[in-house]
Amino acid sequence: MSTERERDDERRSNRTGTFGDYGGQYVPEALMPALQELEDAYERYVLENEDGFMDEFRERMRDFGGRPTPLQRADRLSERYDREIYLKREDLVHGGAHKLNNALGQVLLAKYMGKERIIAETGAGQHGTATAMAAAHLDMPCEIYMGRTDVNRQRPNVYRMRMNGAEVNPVEAGSGTLKEAINETMRDWATTVERTHYVIGSVVGPHPFPQMVRDFQAVIGDEIRDQIQEKAGRLPDSVVACAGGGSNTMGTFHAFVPDCANPRFADGSSGDGPREQVDLYAVEAGGSSLEIDESEGVAPNSATLSTGTDGVLHGAMTKLLQSTDGQIMESHSVSAGLDYAGVGPELSHLVETGRVTPASVDDEDALNGFHRLSRLEGIIPALESSHALGYLEKHTDELGDLVVVNVSGRGDKDLETVLEETEKRDLEAAPDVEVFDQ
Amino acid sequence: MSEYDSDIEAAIREDHPALITYITAGDPSLEDTKAYVEALDRGGSDLIELGLPFSEPIAEGQTIQAAINRALAAGTTPEGFFELVDDLETEAPLLVMTYYNMILQYGVSEAPRASDSDAASPRNEPDVRPFVERAAEAGLSGIIVPDLPAEEAEPLRAACDDHGLDLVFIIAPTTEGERLETIMSHVSGFAYVQARLGTTGARANVSGATHDSLARLSEYDVPKAVGFGVSEGDHAAEIIEAGADGVIVGSALVEIIADADTPEAAVDRLEAKARELKRGARRGADSITVDPEDTPEPEQP
């Protein structure tokens, strides 16, 4: 398949772990040998399929994970927007989100590497849940770090992790969200690095994580590419995905990055002839406002790609929400899974070079997107994914005639938040939630 | 005049065995920090590391994390930090210990701002030079960056070389073989030997990893100082006896600051603690050259 070939070419040219000016390995020295060991294992097992690693991974993703997921034509949305709208149903992956693609890949890799223990951070709890499931499935002890605020707002996922036998450690520091959970997991890893693998949950962190997580998630875009050509006979005009750290985003976009009129991205050597242009939209959480309060160190949003500036956080040079002094801001989103002040370095690079269009949708439009999909299509999306659907509503005219939206996860975990936030607002797409308790 | 190019190396070699102390600048205020640094200097510190607080200190344990939070809550800024260093007159050379993002952002004038969602944000240009220039101007002798491994350090090294500052690298218990050789070839000032895996924080004993690391480093002719977990004079003695040229103590001093009822009490206790640690280090050096039977009883803190 051409995308596989292109991916191999890119791997050969990208061995230093940077994407343009972004990426790298900014971590304490104690972790560097572990990163080198991981890089070596990633190259052998993931890139070269040593010992049939990738064959086992794909088989487990099929039988345990439920892949491939459907690409579904959304009939009523297509009618509403007067164009062809397709939904990539990552909400149907085992566990209810795309996160398992990466979690299972990394836990299996840790097993091949002979590691004895798995640790992970989680924001919304989707990655923690996926890691706990993968660890139970592959019989590995597992500890999850989760910010106290997120523990309180994502209870169902805390229960699921514990059901799967994982230990959940609430992190009290700071605002008790994903940023603090990552800090604490890195501290654990620096202490236990010789026998522990840290399953980073997004395309963030030091090399090789951004590349490796993207490769595990790239199955999303690979499937879309085949499915859309089969169903619509051509590539889409636009692909829309939400972006927090960016793992579903990069997973969805990766296969389409070369589909670009700009020769910088289109790889003429692939023998496919001229490229059709596929526009890529990364939709971030606009929260309640895009303005930041420097004096309080608070950003009422998580719109890193649209409003962030370059800096180093959690092991990589990337775009960040930070003060002029370089202190990291407390981000905000109605969706815990997007609530992060950083973003993947490759996504920063693709935005900087113009290949990916950054966009943001505020809390209200995301909630409307949630209700609209629930009522029009019978699919309750995660609040994260609802941002992509909010963008579709607001900017449908810019997206062309054939649009694919990635529904990165299902919304069961968000029901309480949605009810609470809906009650506070007058939302056009929402049902009357006051009658729910009667 | 010293025979060494580096103030830091001179301090360790000439005051052997060396005591290196760390506190977080701005905890609880920059004014208090000035008094605390002077107390550590009087107590016999040969080098003093000042932490410039960063909001995500991934290499720190809870003690220093809490100090950093207090310093940030008190409004500590890089410029305030440099003004403090401008004002300090200590016998011990001063180093700054901070995270890479703080160095990159210094002097970047462009504030993050909301932009039209259809356009990428304007590019700021992070650069290490303004920070290094200001550090040299303020009279700092070196920089330690816990999240900057040798692989990513070239821009900062070049800037430090141009301004006569040492860039101190950390050697972890996991640093071996080729990596160790590479890092040791870059060392300037001293090698910061991390006593154990994990984060900073006072501990009750000296780890076996310390002895292993010092053994691995014995063939390299650079000063070696051990930190991460050192809190008492007896630890200092044991570490120097194991072959280190200096001990680095941070969390134990930060705890004194956190626990003291008044800044004056903290000043007295910091000075006394520095003396205890320096005495311990000397005891370790003495026991290398005397019969172990003659070793004096350890002093009570």
TrEMBL record, chain A:
Q: Where, per the database record, does this protein carry N6-(pyridoxal phosphate)lysine?
A: K99
Pathway assignment: Amino-acid biosynthesis; L-tryptophan biosynthesis; L-tryptophan from chorismate: step 5/5
Q: What is this enzyme's EC?
A: 4.2.1.20
Reaction equation(s) it catalyzes: (1S,2R)-1-C-(indol-3-yl)glycerol 3-phosphate + L-serine = D-glyceraldehyde 3-phosphate + L-tryptophan + H2O
Renumbered to this chain, region (Disordered) spans 1-22
Question: Would you tell me the Gene Ontology cellular component terms?
Answer: cytoplasm
> Which domain of life does this protein belong to?
Archaea
By its UniProt entry, which CDD domains does this protein fall under?
A: Trp-synth_B
Task: Give the protein's function.
Answer: The beta subunit is responsible for the synthesis of L-tryptophan from indole and L-serine.
Summarize the subunit comment. Answer: Tetramer of two alpha and two beta chains.
Protein name in the entry: Tryptophan synthase beta chain
Organism equals Natrinema versiforme
Question: Organism classification, top ranks?
Answer: Archaea, Methanobacteriati, Methanobacteriota, Stenosarchaea group, Halobacteria
UniProtKB/TrEMBL annotation, chain B:
For molecular function, the Gene Ontology terms on record are: tryptophan synthase activity
Which UniProt keywords are given for this protein, alphabetically ordered?
Answer: Amino-acid biosynthesis, Aromatic amino acid biosynthesis, Lyase, Tryptophan biosynthesis
Q: What PROSITE patterns does the entry give?
A: TRP_SYNTHASE_ALPHA
Q: Where is the composition biased (Acidic residues)?
A: 291-301
Q: Where is this region: Disordered?
A: 276-301
One GO cellular component, as annotated: cytosol
**Part of which pathway?**
Amino-acid biosynthesis; L-tryptophan biosynthesis; L-tryptophan from chorismate: step 5/5
Q: Which residues form the active site?
A: E49 (proton acceptor), E60 (proton acceptor)
Substrates-to-products reaction catalysed: (1S,2R)-1-C-(indol-3-yl)glycerol 3-phosphate + L-serine = D-glyceraldehyde 3-phosphate + L-tryptophan + H2O
Q: Which Pfam families match?
A: Trp_syntA
Compositionally biased residues, Basic and acidic residues: 276-285
The task this protein performs is described as: The alpha subunit is responsible for the aldol cleavage of indoleglycerol phosphate to indole and glyceraldehyde 3-phosphate.
Q: How does it assemble?
A: Tetramer of two alpha and two beta chains.
Similarity section: Belongs to the TrpA family.
Under what name is this protein listed? Answer: Tryptophan synthase alpha chain
